[in-house]
Task: inverse folding
C-alpha cells in the first residue's frame, strides 16, 4: 500500500522531473499552477509536457505546446459553461471538449452538441467525449458539420448514447464508400433510416494483415 | 461617473498623507475608507470542519491503480533508506511484467491492438498517453520477421494519443489509426487517436 | 535572555509555524496540519468571497471548494512563501465561476438586510444600516472592479500581491482600483 501511495501521490512537478529538460520546468510549473488556480484539469497539461519531453521537443516549443493546451482548456470550460448554464463544469467534460477543439471541431458545433435536448430517457452526467468524437469523425470524413450534428441528435433521441454514437459515425463513413461512392447527403440519409439499429463497429479494430504466402503461417 | 481628485487617489494609495488633503476633498477620502472599514467585519461562519471532513475523505479514498498504465509505467521516486530493499524488490516484480501477459479487461477497460508495417525495422514500440509517453514500456513484436509488427494491451476505456517509435529514434504516426490530432508543438506532427471501448 | 522591547513597541513573541513549514508538514503526510492553513486564512477568504458574491452561504461554498482544491494541489504551490496569494487566487477564480453561473443582484437582494428609508445624512444610520448600504453599493460594481477594491482596501493586499492573485499587471490593477473607487463613491452618493 505504501508503494501505491508513493506512486499515486506524485505531484505534477515530480512526474516531470527527469522527463523534460530542466530549463522547461519553471515555465511548465507556472502553467500547471495557473490551471490549478483556475480550477482547470491539470492532467492534460502534464501529459502534453511528458509527450514533449519524450519527443525531444526544444524547450520554447515544448512550453508553448503546453501553454496552447492551457488556452484550449480555458476555451473548453467557457464552452461547457455556456452549453450547460447553472451547472459546475466537471474536469472530465472540460478535458473532453478540449480534446474536441484539438481535433479541429468548431466551438459553436461543440456547444450545440452539449446543449442538445436530452433524449427521452436522459442519463444525467453522460460524458460528452463520445458524441464529440463522433462529430469530429464525421467532419473528418467530409460530412457537413450541421448535418453531422443533426444525425447525432437524431441518434440520441432514438436512445443511442456513449460509444454507440461512434458506431453511427462509422456507419456513415461506410455508407459513403458503398456502391462506388455516395454523396454525404445520401450516406447520412441511409444511416438515419437505420436508427437505432446501426451495426456495432468491430471491436477492438483488428486490422486485416496481409501476410506473404508461405512465411511462417 | 464621479471622478475622484487625483490627490484623493494618491492618499488612498498611501502615496500622500491624507492630512494634507484640502477640506473639500476629505469627505470623499473618509467615505471610501469608511466603506472599506465597514466591509472589513470578520465573517461569522467557519468552513474548517467541512473542509477537514472532505480532506479526511480524500485520504480514505485514495484511488486504486488502473492496470496496465501503472504496471507498464516505470516510475522513479525517492525512498527512505529503510524501505529501499523491500520496496525495490516489489517494484522490480511489477515494472517488468510483459504487456502481453496483461489480465483480461475489467469493466471500464478494453483491448487495444496495434499493427504497423515496418519492414527492416529492428524495433517498434508504442509510446503514448496510456504510458505517460514513457519510452521502452510497450514494444511490438514481429516474430516471423515479415515486417508486420503487432501487439495488444488492456487499456482504460476512453481516449488515448500515441505514436510509433521505430528503431528507437523515428516517430511515426500510425497510418491505420483513422483518427489524428495535431500534437500542438508547432511542427505539424500528428498523434494517432485511439478510443478504447469497454 | 531576551532583550527588552524597544520603547513604544509591543514585545511580540510568535511561535506560529511559517506557511512554508506547514506546507512541508502537509506534503509529508500530516493532513491535519492543513487545519492551520484553514484557520489562518479562512476569515480573509470568507470575507473576500462574501464581498464578491454578496452571500455568506455562497461564500462558504466557494471558500470550502477552494481550500479543498488547494489541499489536493498543494504540491503545485511553487512558492509556499506566497501561499496567501495562491489561496486568494484560487478563491477569486471560484468566485468568478459562481458569478458566471448566477445573477449577483438576486443574491444580494436575498441576503442583504432591509434598507433603511432614504436619509439625508450618513451619520444618523445605524452601523448595520451603513453596512447594508455599502454592501449594496459594492454589489453594483462590475466583478473586476469589485474584486480590485476588496483586495486592495478590505483584504489589504499590495499591488504586487494583487498581481499574483489576479494575473493582471500592476498598472492595470491601479486603474481598476481607481475606477472602482469612483464607481463606489457614486453608488454611495446615490444611496444616501
Result:
Amino acid at each position: 500500500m505504501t508503494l501505491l501511495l508513493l506512486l499515486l501521490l506524485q505531484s505534477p512537478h515530480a512526474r516531470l522531473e527527469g522527463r523534460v529538460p530542466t530549463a522547461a520546468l519553471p515555465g511548465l510549473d507556472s502553467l500547471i499552477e495557473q490551471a490549478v488556480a483556475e480550477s482547470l484539469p491539470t492532467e492534460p497539461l502534464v501529459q502534453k509536457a511528458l509527450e514533449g519531453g519524450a519527443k525531444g521537443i526544444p524547450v520554447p516549443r515544448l512550453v508553448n505546446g503546453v501553454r496552447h493546451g492551457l488556452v484550449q482548456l480555458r476555451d473548453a470550460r467557457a464552452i461547457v459553461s455556456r452549453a450547460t448554464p447553472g451547472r459546475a463544469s466537471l474536469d472530465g467534460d472540460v478535458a473532453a471538449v478540449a480534446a474536441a477543439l484539438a481535433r479541429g471541431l468548431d466551438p459553436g458545433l461543440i456547444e450545440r452538441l452539449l446543449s442538445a435536448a436530452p433524449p427521452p430517457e436522459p442519463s444525467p452526467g453522460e460524458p460528452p467525449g463520445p458524441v464529440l468524437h463522433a462529430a469530429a469523425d464525421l467532419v473528418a470524413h467530409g460530412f457537413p458539420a450541421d448535418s453531422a450534428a443533426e444525425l447525432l441528435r437524431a441518434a440520441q433521441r432514438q436512445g443511442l448514447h456513449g460509444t454507440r454514437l461512434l458506431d453511427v459515425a462509422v456507419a456513415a463513413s461506410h455508407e459513403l464508400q458503398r456502391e462506388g461512392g455516395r454523396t454525404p447527403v445520401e450516406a447520412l440519409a441511409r444511416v438515419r433510416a437505420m436508427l437505432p439499429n446501426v451495426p456495432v463497429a468491430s471491436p477492438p479494430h483488428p486490422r486485416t494483415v496481409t501476410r506473404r504466402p508461405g512465411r511462417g503461417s | 461617473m464621479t471622478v475622484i481628485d487625483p490627490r484623493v487617489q494618491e492618499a488612498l494609495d498611501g502615496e500622500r498623507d491624507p492630512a494634507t488633503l484640502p477640506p473639500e476633498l476629505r469627505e470623499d477620502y473618509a467615505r471610501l475608507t469608511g466603506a472599506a472599514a465597514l466591509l472589513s467585519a470578520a465573517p461569522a461562519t467557519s468552513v474548517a470542519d467541512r473542509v477537514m471532513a472532505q480532506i479526511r475523505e480524500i485520504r480514505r479514498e485514495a484511488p486504486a491503480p488502473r492496470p496496465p498504465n501503472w504496471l507498464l509505467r516505470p516510475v522513479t521516486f525517492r525512498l527512505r533508506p529503510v524501505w529501499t530493499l523491500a520496496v525495490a524488490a516489489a517494484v522490480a516484480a511489477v515494472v517488468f511484467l510483459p504487456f502481453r501477459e496483461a489480465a483480461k479487461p475489467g469493466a471500464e477497460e478494453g483491448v487495444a491492438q496495434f499493427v504497423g508495417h515496418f519492414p527492416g525495422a529492428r524495433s517498434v514500440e508504442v509510446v503514448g498517453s496510456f504510458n505517460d509517453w514513457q519510452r521502452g514500456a510497450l514494444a511490438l513484436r514481429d516474430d516471423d520477421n515479415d515486417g508486420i509488427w503487432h501487439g495488444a494491451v488492456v487499456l482504460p476505456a476512453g481516449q488515448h494519443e500515441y505514436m510509433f517509435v521505430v528503431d528507437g529514434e523515428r516517430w511515426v504516426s500510425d497510418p491505420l489509426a483513422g483518427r489524428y490530432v495535431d500534437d500542438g508543438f508547432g511542427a505539424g506532427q500528428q498523434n494517432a487517436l485511439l478510443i478504447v471501448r469497454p | 535572555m531576551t532583550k527588552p522591547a524597544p520603547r513604544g513597541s509591543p514585545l511580540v513573541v510568535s511561535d506560529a509555524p511559517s506557511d512554508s513549514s506547514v506546507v512541508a508538514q502537509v506534503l509529508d503526510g500530516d493532513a491535519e496540519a492543513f487545519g492551520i492553513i484553514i484557520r489562518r486564512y479562512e476569515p480573509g477568504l470568507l470575507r473576500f468571497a462574501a464581498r464578491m458574491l454578496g452571500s455568506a452561504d455562497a461564500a462558504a461554498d466557494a471558500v470550502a471548494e477552494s481550500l479543498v482544491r488547494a489541499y489536493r494541489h498543494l504540491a503545485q504551490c511553487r512558492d509556499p512563501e506566497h501561499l496567501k496569494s495562491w489561496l486568494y487566487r484560487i478563491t477569486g477564480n471560484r468566485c468568478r465561476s459562481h458569478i458566471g453561473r448566477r445573477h449577483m443582484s438576486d443574491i444580494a437582494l436575498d441576503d442583504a438586510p432591509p434598507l433603511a428609508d432614504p436619509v439625508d445624512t450618513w451619520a444618523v444610520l445605524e452601523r448595520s444600516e451603513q453596512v447594508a448600504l455599502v454592501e449594496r453599493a459594492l454589489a453594483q460594481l462590475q466583478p473586476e472592479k469589485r474584486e480590485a477594491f476588496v483586495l486592495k482596501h478590505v483584504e489589504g493586499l499590495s499591488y504586487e500581491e494583487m498581481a499574483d492573485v489576479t494575473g493582471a499587471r500592476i498598472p492595470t490593477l491601479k486603474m481598476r482600483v481607481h475606477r472602482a473607487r469612483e464607481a463606489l463613491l457614486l453608488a454611495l452618493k446615490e444611496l444616501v
Notes: Residues 69-196 of chain B form a domain with the Immunoglobulin-like fold (CATH 2.60.40.10). Chain B has five helices and seven strands. The helical segments of chain B are 6-12, 23-39, 48-60, 69-72, 84-95. Chain B has two domains: 1-62, 69-196.
